[in-house]
Amino acid sequence: MILRGDKRQLIKPMQFYVDKEIFLSGAERIISVMAQARIVSLDVGSEETKICYSVCYNIVYRNANDILSHTETQDKSTSIKIAEAHAKNYVDLNAQVIAVEYVGSTDLKIRTEIELRGFVIIDHKLELPEITNDVYTKNESYIIERVEPIKESEIVASGAFTVKENINKILSYDTQIQISKTQASTEICEISGECFTYIIYLSNGNINSRCFTIPFTTEILASNMKENTSAYCNAIANSTVITLDNESSDATSNVNIEIVVLVKGIGIQKDNVEFCCDAYSSTDELEIKYNTSRITENICLTGASEKIYSMIRLEKEHSRLRSVLAICPPMVGAIRISNENGLAVEGIISMLIICLDENDEITTELAEVPYNFVVDKDFPIANILTASTLVNSIVAKVRHNDEIEITGELCIDVHASYERTIEHISSISKIRDRSETEYAISLYLVRKGESLWDVAKALHTDETTLLDLNSDIKLPLNGGEEILLYRELNTNT
Fold first, then answer.
1. Given a cut of 90, is residue 259 above it in pLDDT?
2. Please, what are the domains in the chain?
3. What is the DSSP letter of 128?
4. What is each CA distance from 463 to 178, 286, 439, 479, in whole angstroms?
C-alpha cells in the first residue's frame, strides 16, 4: 500500500541585480526612485526553471517648473536551478525588491537588487505492507502531513476615502498585503486580510504621503481542500488603480482605490497513520523488509507584530531639517531567523524619507532601521525556518533639527518544519509453513525490558491467549515472571 506524504521544500533564497537606464527630459533633480518586481510566469524543468518577471519603476523628480513622476516597466527573464523540481511539481516563487540605487538625473541609471524566495512541493510516498489475518503486528501511530497547493486566485479589494486635504496629483504608490486569517472548508478557502497602499502626492505644490488601509474578507475556490485542512496563504497586489475626485471641495479630496489581489498558498492535510514496526505469524515463517522514512511536521505562526523605533542622527555638515514631507514605501531585506533561545527574527528596514531643510529645499535621507525581535520564546525546535515581514505603519518626525525619529509596526509570519525518522515494515511475505513444536507445555521466563508482545512473538502465539492462561500476570511486565503456554499437539502420524 502506498501512502502520499508530499512535502514542502524550500528554495534557497537567491539575489541578483537588474540595471535600467531611463531618460527623463528636463529632469534637474531626482527626488525618489521606487521599484516593484513581480513574477509573470514560470517554466519548470528538471534541469532549470525559466522565470519571466517584470520590474516597475516609479521616479519622482523636479524640473525647472514642477515636480513630476515617471513610470516605466522592464520585462526580463532568467533561468535558475531548483533542486528536485520537475515539470509536474508545483513551484511557488516570489520576487521582492530589497534595495534600489541610482545615479544621474536626465540620464538616470538604476540598479535594483531583487531577491527570489519560494518553495517546491515534492512527491513523497510511504510504502506500507498489506497485512493478512494470520499475521500479528505491532503498530505505532504517527501524524502524516500532506502538503497541497492552493493555486492562484484573483480577488478585488476596494476602498473609498475622504481626505481633508486637496490632493492635486498622485506621484507614486505601492501596495503591500497581509493575510491575517485563512480558513479551509470543502473546496473553499475563506480569507481575511488588509491592503496597505502607500501614496506620495502633491497637495498645493507640496509633497506629502499617506497610507490607506483596506480590509477584505472573501472566499476562493480550492478544489483540493477539505474540512480538516490547515491553510496558509500569501498575497501580492497584481494591480492598483487610484482615482481622485476634488470637485466637492477645495479643502477635501475623495480617494478611490481598487486593488486586484493575487492569492496563493498551501493546505496541510493531516492523517493519523498506523505504521507496522514488528510482525510475526504463529503458523508461517515470514520474510520482513524494513524501510526508513522521514516524516515532516509543519508549524505556522501568523499575525505576530512588533513595534519599530529608531532615531537617525544626521551628519554635522548636513543642513538642519525643518520637517518630514513624505516617506517612501519601506523595503524589508536581509531577513534572518533563528530558534536557539526562542524564535528570533532580524533584518533591516530601509526607506527613503523626503524632508524640507532650513533653506526650504527638498532633501532626502535613506534611513536603515535594524530590527531584532523574539517572536515566540517557546517555539518548537525546527529544522527549517522561513519568515516574511511587512511594515503596516510607519511615521517619521524631525527632532531637534538634526535627528529623525521613526516609529511603526512590523508584522511577521513564520513557517517552520521539522523532520523525524521512523523505521517501519514496508513488506511482509510468507517463506514457508512453520514447523510444529513437539512440546505441549512451554514455560517462559520474562527478561527485564520485555513486553507481553515479545513473549507472544517468542512463543508463536498471541497476547490474548497468554493472558487467558496466566490470569495472575500483571501488566506491564517487570521481568522475572513465569508465563505458561499450553498447546494442542497434532497426534496424527
1. yes
2. 1-123 (no CATH), 436-486 (3.10.350.10)
3. -
4. 56, 19, 19, 16
pLDDT single digits (tens) 207-239: 999 999 999 999 999 888 888 889 999 999 999
Residue 251 C-alpha cell reads as: 479643502
Q: What is the DSSP string of 228-290?
A: T-EEEEEEEEEEEEEEEE-SS-SS-EEEEEEEEEEEEEEEEEEEEEEEEEEEEESSEEEEEEE
Q: List, as one string, the DSSP characters of 366-413.
A: EEEEEEEEEEETTPPP-SEEEEEEEEEEEEEEEETTTEEEEEEEEEEE
Longest dimension (CA), the chain: 118
Angle value at C-alpha 473, between 470 and 474, nearest 5 degrees: 155
- What's the sign of the alpha-carbon dihedral 96, 388, 383, 7? negative
Distances (CA, A) of 143 to 62, 106, 186, 232: 61, 62, 21, 19
Instruction: Return the pLDDT at 194.
Output: 95
Map residue 454 onto helix, strand or coil.
Answer: helix
β-pairing verdict for 230-245 and 125-127: unpaired
User: For the chain, how big is the Rg over CA atoms in Å?
Assistant: 32
Say which amino acid occupies 400.
H
Separation CA 267–CA 222 (nearest Å): 9
d(CA 71, CA 75): 14
